[in-house]
Amino acid sequence: MNHSIRNSWMAAVAMFALLFGAISYVQVIGAGDLNDNPWNQRAVLANYCNDRGAIIVGGKPIAESVPGDESCKFQRQYSQPELYAGITGYFSRSYGSTGLEQQLRDELAGSSDQLFLDRVSQIFLGSQPKGASVELTIDPAIQKLAYDLIPDGQQGSIVVTNPKTGAIIAMVSKPSYDPNLIATHDPAKEKASYEQLNQVPGINLNQSVSGPTGALLAPGSVFKLVDTAAALNSGKYNKDSVLPNPDSLPLPGSSASLPNYAGGNCSVRSTADFAFALEQSCNTPFASIALDLGQKAIADQASKFGFGQDFGDQLKLQSAVSVFPTNLDQAALAQSAVGQRDVKATPLQIAMMTDAIANNGVQMKPELIKTVRAPDLRVISEPKPETLRTSTSPDIAKQITEWMTDVVSKGIASGAAIPGVDVAGKTGTAQLGDSGLNNSWFTGFAPANDPQVAVTIVMQNVDVFTGAKLTSPNAKKIFEAVLNK
């Protein structure tokens, strides 16, 4: 009998410990992760019908709460929804929230610590709970221009920044969608819209990260800027170094070879300096540099530009992590050095790498939030420019800028040239298997000697001609629009 009682007591203690551990995890250890999960409907339902704060661009709301119906006092409404969907995300009864609606949920719902006194005041006054408004750094005119520069039906992304402050001036992608279709109070319409949008190629609402912050793509030749910085930082190379430039480079331990870029004039020289190799985007010199320096030197420099790090906390927006692979054999290292193989980067990552070069080697924290205001318009948060890391030295950044300027004035990025303005740039063409299609990139800044704006563009699944037409020339249009404001 005593044996049975003892066993029952031990089972009860074990069950109590398991229950206590589960409660502790949910309430303490895992509380943050559970609240951050976009599929956590409890966080949404807790304030679904409240007067949620507005998200503002250029003084006008792009997301706000408007009077609802009998089932809910307030309804979430999005203005110019496709233009801003990649930033605002959606706020849905059934599917949770994404984008700023998720990442700034406490501020928008009025439940952040900074709004404690406002909540107390609302309780005493018997007022409807109201959230804080969030004004963004986005320039509405540049946002609209960038969005329109991506043709309908084309998958692509554009990021426009101020390299000196890290402020995001524009951030767009296509295809896009209308968050109003998912924010509806009609459950049947909400479900039908969600399922229909998830059938559109390039849209996946099950993923909380997409577009400029979430599209992990082969960066192609824009990655050669990493190689260049690593080479100069090693002390083994300088601006006068002579680089091997064969038409193809046999890949060590393999029967394959890496061909030189065929779209420029690489074939006219068997050796090249950095200026020529970057101007014509030659592959073999940079693959040779990587084989000489080794994987660690390239990986370390990539890390200094932000590869392998999550920018989500800095940006206040979900962000995928860009990757430079590890444990590479020599053949894989040579291919990775030209931005192929398993190297993956978001458009935001390439933009931040370019910002660091433009800003004398200093990478600034990416900033999307201009101000956060309480319901009484009191400013409760106003982020200031903040240094994130030193990516390279001022001298190396200056030298790379000079070469990038030649890429536009003399090389294959001439479509970005602006009369009377020195523009620094680099193109990239990442091959997608044997399809004949590529991810086509441009990244650069202007003016080269005093950067005011940086632009990164990627167009996915395009042929070489289409990619050239949609990248450098479109960057020129954005540069001119910003500089002429």
Strand content: 15-25%
Q: How many domains in all?
A: 2
The helix fraction, in percent, is 25-40%
CATH fold label of the largest domain? Beta-lactamase
Mean pLDDT: 88
- Total beta strands: 19
Oligomer: single chain
Assign the CATH architecture of the largest domain.
Answer: 3-Layer(aba) Sandwich
Q: Strand order, main sheet: write it out.
A: 3-2-1-6-14-15
Radius of gyration: 25 Å
Q: In DSSP terms, counting alpha (H) and pi (I) runs of 4 or more, how many helices?
A: 21
Q: Structural class from helices and strands? A: alpha+beta
Shape by Cα distribution: globular
Domain Penicillin binding protein A dimerisation: 52-134
Protein name: Penicillin-binding protein 2
Pfam families: PBP_dimer_2, Transpeptidase
Organism: Arthrobacter terricola
Describe the structure concisely.
Residues 156-479 form the Penicillin-binding protein transpeptidase domain. The chain is an alpha+beta fold and 485 residues long.
Provide a descriptive summary of the structure in words.
The protein contains 21 helices and 19 strands. It starts with a helix and ends with a helix. The chain has helices at residues 2-29, 31-36, 41-45, 81-88, 99-103, 105-109, 116-125, 140-148, 180-183, 187-197, 211-214, 224-234, 274-279, 284-293, 295-304, 312-315, 330-336, 347-358, 394-409, 464-470, 472-483, and strands at residues 55-57, 60-69, 72-78, 91-92, 96-97, 133-136, 156-161, 168-174, 243-244, 248-250, 257-259, 271-272, 362-364, 369-373, 379-381, 387-390, 424-431, 438-446, 453-462. A hairpin with a 5-residue loop joins strand 14 and strand 15 (379-381). Helix 12 (224-234) packs across helix 14 (284-293). Helices cover 39% and strands 19% of the residues. It has a 6-stranded mixed sheet, with helices on one face. A 5-stranded antiparallel sheet has the order 8-7-19-18-17, sandwiched between helices. It folds into 2 domains: 41-136 and 177-203, Penicillin-binding protein 2a (Domain 2); 220-368 and 387-483, Beta-lactamase (3-Layer(aba) Sandwich). It has 485 residues and is an alpha+beta fold. GO terms for molecular function: penicillin binding; peptidoglycan L,D-transpeptidase activity. Residues 52-134 form the Penicillin binding protein A dimerisation domain. Residues 156-479 form the Penicillin-binding protein transpeptidase domain. It comes from Arthrobacter terricola. This is Penicillin-binding protein 2.
